[in-house]
Write a structure and sequence with these properties.
The structure holds two protein chains of two kinds. Chain A is mainly α. Chain A has eight helices and no strands. The radius of gyration of chain A is 23 Å and the shape is flat. In chain A, 26% of the residues are buried. The chains are: A mainly alpha, B mainly alpha.
């Protein structure tokens, strides 16, 4: 049993299970990356943040955090979606609605995943959270498929990898 | 459908696949489409660079046709290298425009976009990425709605 008022680190799923806004069994302390100080960093320039280091599921975890009633929730939700595109070269026409973390970082992910001549992609990818990395892969695939088509590889018939392995396994069985 | 008659020396229209096949078997000479010409393509490229919107392309399959014809019948196409470069430049401009358009769409959080005159090739290269990104954005935006359900459990 735990003393009332003690502070523990527990997994998100457990916290969600225990949380009840009426009975107040637990209260949740925001991890620092979702707090105001960090939110200011995001609004200055979301692109500089290493989202992988700060917790590789920034967007997913942040969205889950909103389940726990917290007066800062609207700001957190905004920041996750938003972060001023300070590093962006494009003019922002509406000063009231500031662009957001996902939105601000979107451009770089799109450009680097779709650009064949980009050499420092590994440095960029290292700083992406898992959601962004998955997106990056999708962009790369689009590019790779295009290049494959360009080279004429799309019309070459190649053996399915399943069939290739089948041959190898059979040999192993024979040697047994 | 029916094809022919094939009379030597007289031009005849055939499906692309047949034309390529016959060419590979050295049984014919290919005549490039009207738009596959340096002057025309320069016009298209310049217009693409100048305008914010997408230029209607002379063929919805301009990339595919260019690749096929230049690969298999470049000897029948005058100034083939220049044509290859021009088409590539136009493609690059169009794809860059598409990304710019996607970025501004995302940043302004629009709900609808209409892009005219894109070809399937361009859509397929960026499409999956854009669709997934917009899915994520939609989910993040629903976080902003007040009164989202928080589960309460009775113990």
């Amino acid at each position: 049993s735990f003393l009332q008022g003690s502070k523990l680190e527990i997994p998100l799923w457990l916290a969600k299970g225990l949380y009840d806004s009426k009975r107040r069994i637990i209260s949740v302390e925001l991890p620092k990356i979702y707090r105001e100080a960090w939110r200011t960093v995001f609004s200055a320039d979301a692109n500089v943040v290493d989202l992988h280091k700060m917790g590789p599921y920034y967007y997913g975890f942040g969205s889950q955090l909103l389940n726990f009633e917290n007066p800062e929730n609207p700001e957190i939700a905004q920041t996750i979606l938003q972060a001023t595109g300070g590093g962006s070269v494009l003019p922002v026409s509406d000063p009231v609605c500031s662009p957001q973390t996902f939105i601000a970082r979107f451009r770089r992910i799109m450009d680097s995943s779709q650009n064949a001549y980009n050499e420092d992609t590994s440095a960029l990818v290292a700083r992406l959270d898992e959601l962004e990395r998955a997106l990056f892969q999708v962009g790369q695939k689009g590019l790779n498929d295009f290049q494959c088509w360009e080279k004429g590889q799309a019309s070459q018939i190649t053996a399915s990898s399943l069939v290739q392995n089948y041959g190898k396994r059979k040999l192993a069985e024979v040697d047994g | 459908g029916d094809l022919g008659p094939f009379n030597p020396g007289l031009p005849v229209e055939v499906p692309v696949w047949l034309a390529i096949n016959l060419k590979q078997r050295q049984k014919c000479r290919l005549i490039p489409p009207e738009w596959m010409d340096v002057g025309k393509l320069e016009e298209i490229r310049d217009r693409e660079r100048k305008e914010d919107t997408f230029t209607p392309m002379p063929s919805p399959y301009y990339m595919e046709l260019t690749k096929l014809l230049l690969n298999y019948a470049s000897d029948n196409i005058p100034r083939a290298d220049e044509i290859r470069t021009l088409v590539k430049d136009t493609w690059d401009t169009r794809v860059a425009k598409l990304r710019l358009s996607a970025d501004s769409f995302v940043r302004q959080q629009e709900a609808h976009a209409k892009l005219d005159n894109l070809t399937l090739m361009e859509i397929n290269t960026t499409g999956t990425f854009l669709t997934q990104a917009l899915d994520h954005m939609y989910k993040l935006r629903t976080n902003l709605q007040p009164g989202e359900s928080s589960h309460s459990q009775d113990f």
